[in-house]
Amino acid sequence: MRVALCQMRVWQGERERNWQTAEEMLAKAREGGADVAVLPEMWTSGYDFGRLEEHAETLTGPTRARMAEAARRLGLWVVAGSWPVRGPEGVANTSCTFAPNGQLVHVYRKVHLIGLMAEDRYLVPGQAANTFTLAGNEAAVMICYDLRFPELARRFALSGAKVIFIPAEWPVQRAAHWRALCTARAIEDQAYVVAVNMSGWNDQDRFAGGSLVVDPWGEMVVEGGEEPGILYADIDLTKVEEVRSAMSVLRDARPDVYQAKVNRT
Fold first, then answer.
1. DSSP structure string for 72-118
2. Is 144 among the residues known to form the active site?
3. Burial, 53: exposed, middle or buried (Cβ in 10 Å; 0-12, 13-18, 19+)?
4. pLDDT digit string (tens) for 101-126?
């Protein structure tokens, strides 16, 4: 399976410009032989919370329509990063995945909201963590800050996920954490981690780029720099079963022992 990591330069608040960039990158990804293309977090508008109501859409809004049409036209799986989606409880940081026929096959709302970036003031957290089937294999999506919570990735792995996609908007000052955490999640859950970060900056932050793929043994398959562009990785999902058979980490897990009550004080 060939995966294209679309490391976009996201222009804060400029939805039309970002839509066009994403569609161009998806087309180039298909030309490059990709079976799956992945976009970064909040790519339609960036963290433009001052205009969140303007940028937020319903799940049937224009971004879904454009991404579904791109997937159908190109015959491409599209893990369409995330964008702000309005629901009954409020606006959630939402990722949608589309099959090559344009069908929406998975929706994930970011579970962990980072107070450091004021997400918890503007957004509502997701309440579900489900896998989905991509080309006959179980897969999952986490978004950016979710990467710091190994319990979520472990839930996906125990549910059978062989690949975890991570759209992100990760700042450069914590770039070392990004690389280390992506590698850790791949090693401990014996899964491919496909992590796509944005490139560029906004009024408050510069973003690290460094999109990467780590295999189930913790080996780096591909890793980008800070500039925008498309990275390609050929991944062999049979390697997941080989690694899990060789070292039975998931079978030996004991969540019944170490599941702890969270102290939020």
1. HHHT-EEE---EEEEETTEEEEEEEEE-TTS-EEEEEE-S---GGGT
2. yes
3. exposed
4. 999 999 999 999 998 888 999 999 99
CA angle 241, 246, 250 (to 5 degrees): 70
For the question of whether the overall pTM of this predicted structure is more than 0.85, the answer is yes
Identify whether 110 is a catalytic site residue. Answer: yes
The single residue of 57, 110, 162, 182 carrying the catalytic annotation is 110
Q: Which listed residue (41, 57, 138, 169) is catalytic?
A: 41
Q: CA dist 145 to 5, 93, 115, 170, 171, Å?
A: 19, 11, 10, 8, 11
Q: Which whole number is the average pLDDT over 141-157?
A: 97
Q: Pick the catalytic residue: 119, 144, 162, 182?
A: 144
The Cα angle at residue 48 between residues 107 and 226, in degrees rounded to 5: 80
Q: How many other CB atoms are there within 10 angstroms of residue 176's CB atom?
A: 11
Q: What is the pLDDT of residue 191?
A: 98
Adjacent-strand bridge partners of 40: none
Q: What b-and-e string marks burial along 221-246, b requiring 16 or more CB atoms within 10 Å of the CB? A: bbbbeeebbbbbbebebebbeebbee
